[in-house]
Every structure is written in structure tokens, then in C-alpha cells.
Amino acid sequence: MKVVVARHAGVCYGVERALKMAREAADVSGQVSTLGPLIHNPQAVAALTERGVAVAGSLDEIARGTVVIRSHGVDPAVITEAESRGLDVVDATCPFVRAAHTCAAELAAAGYAVVIVGESDHPEVEGILAHAGGEAVIVERASDLPARMSRRIGVVVQTTQQIATLREVVDELLPRVNEIRVCNTICSATAKRQTSAAELAGEVDVIVVVGGHNSGNTTRLAEICRARNLRTHHVETAEELRAEWFVGASVAGVTAGASTPDEQIQGVIAAIESIPADE
Questions:
Q1: Mean pLDDT of the chain
Q2: Active site annotation includes 244
Q3: For 66, phi and psi rounded to 5 degrees?
Q4: CA distance 42 to 82
Q5: Nearest-10 Cα torsion for 158, 159, 163, 168
Q6: What is the C-alpha separation between 67 and 70, in angstroms, rounded?
Q7: Vertex 166: Cα angle to 182 and 104 (nearest 5)
Q8: Cβ distance 71 to 14 under 8 Å?
Q9: Which domains, and CATH codes, for the chain?
Q10: Which of 49, 55, 99, 151 pairs with 25 at a CA distance of 20 to 30 A?
């Protein structure tokens, strides 16, 4: 089976940075914990656990040592609380997520009613909400907007959302408000991965998206690919591949979410290449 890999795929700068910071902390500190999974990739998190980096659900589970703030960011009050408990804090918040935090805080401070485009239960969105002062409307799509809105709206977006979703929300708001300020905080790595995934999906017989099933950005890649190619499959590892997916195919595409390390991608590629192609 011939395999074509998307031009932009796999681990991004923010994830690579967070992994590096956690590993370095493990090398120099006796007890290291991440506050929640460092990234949304179970295999990468398991590898950190083997290096002695535990996953804590809350600060109450960390008695001492170092706490690593994951790439999704947190409420700033969490960092303050950790430091007050005598914990060493390593803040691995992605710089793009931090930019979203800054935008949310500035919009709220300027008196805008904040609208966050993203998933309400996602840790990144929870952090953005906290930086907006805890008051914001969170929507996943334009239809989620409430009937009554403030006349001055500030919009910030989860870094892994699709630009089309942001555009739809803004288009819905424009005729309903007097003033709108938009912070497009979708990160460049996300945009590049989404564009190249869509291009590849339309050029191959079948496409496999590699990354955590709990990863929002990987799930969106799969949605984008499926819109162009119904033979789209989302897997975490090569073990999930099924030979029947490739029946009648001669060229397979592979892309991967921003939280997917290269070794996982290569494992999937090798497994697909071993499948006989149908000429």
C-alpha cells in the first residue's frame, strides 16, 4: 500500500514544549505530577508515567514536589494556590493558549461581553473562561448563541477550532450588535494541519487520522477529512487498523493531530505499508 503523509501533521510546538518541560522536571525533581493529562494523547501520557511523572486530578492529590501545568492552561488562581502550598510550578501552557488568555482578559477589562467559541467542557476553554473573569457565553456553533446579547461583544476562540466555525459565529453576531471585536486565536499549527488534511483527503482512496480519541484537535481533523472522504478512520495506534478499511484502495493518506508524537505516526505508516494494495 502506498502511503502519502499530509504536509503538516503531528506534534506541534506547544505540545513538544510541554513534553520537554515535563521530562526535564522529571530529571531534576524527586516527585513530579501534571495537573490533569499533560496532553490529550494516552500513549504519550503513559510514557511520562513510566518516567515517574504522575497524573493528578487536583492539587489535593499533590502533597509535595513539582506540579506541571498542562499545555491547555488553567485558571490563574490554580497556580497561585499551588505556590501557596509550597509546590514548585512548571507552567507548560502553550504560548498560543496563553495568547487566548490575554485576549479574553483584555476584552473583559475593556467592557466587552465575551463570547468564547469552543467546547465548554474542554480544559482550554475553562482556562479562557477564568481569564475572562468567569463570565462569558461559550458556544460551539452559531446556533448556540442566546437570543439576547449585549450590544458590545468580544469574541475569542479555542486554539484548535476551525476558522469556518469562528466565521459562522461572527456572521451571526454582526447584525445583532453595535460593536464587535474578534480575536482570532486559532493557532497557526492547527490551521496548517486542517488545510493540509482537507487537501490530502480529496487525493487518496482512504485516509487515517492518528491521535488520541480524547483529542479535540485530532477529532476535528477526522471531521474535516470525512467531509472530503467518507473512508476516513481515526486511530490512536497501529493496533486499531483494520484490513477491510483498505479493500479496493491503492493509495492511503495519513495525517495526525497536534498532540501525536512522531513514533505513533510512523508505527501507523509502517502497518499500512504492509497491507497489499489493490491495483
A1: 94
A2: no
A3: -115, 135
A4: 25
A5: 10
A6: 9
A7: 40
A8: yes
A9: 2-10+189-273 (3.40.1010.20), 13-93 (3.40.50.11270), 96-186 (3.40.1010.20)
A10: 99
Catalytic residue, from 119, 124, 126, 236: name it. Answer: 124
Neighbours of 173 (CB within 10 A): 18
Residue 226 three-state SS: helix
> For residue 203, what are the CA distances in angstroms to 29, 166, 225?
48, 27, 11
C-alpha cell at 8: 503538516
C-alpha cell of 252? 492511503
pLDDT in tens, 260-273: 999 999 999 999 99
CA atoms of 79 and 71, how far apart (whole Å):
14
C-alpha cell at 67: 506540579
This prediction's pTM: 0.85
- What residue has cell string 493496533? 239
Can you read off the three cell numbers belonging to residue 132?
Answer: 475572562
Please state, in angstroms and rounded to a whole number, the distance separating the CA atoms of residues 37 and 54.
9
Q: How far apart are CA 268 and CA 138, in angstroms?
A: 36
The per-residue pLDDT for 206 is 98
Give CA separation, 271 vs 1, 152, 274, in Å. Answer: 10, 53, 5
Q: How confident is the model at residue 128 (pLDDT cuts 50, 70, 90)?
A: very high
Q: In what helix (H) or strand (E) does residue 183 lie, and over which residues does it extend?
A: strand 179-183
Strand 152-157's sheet: what is its strand order?
137-139, 113-117, 152-157, 179-183
Matching residue, cell 467518507:
230
From 92, 146, 154, 144, select the one nearest 123 (Cα to Cα).
Answer: 92
Q: Which residue type occupies 219?
A: T
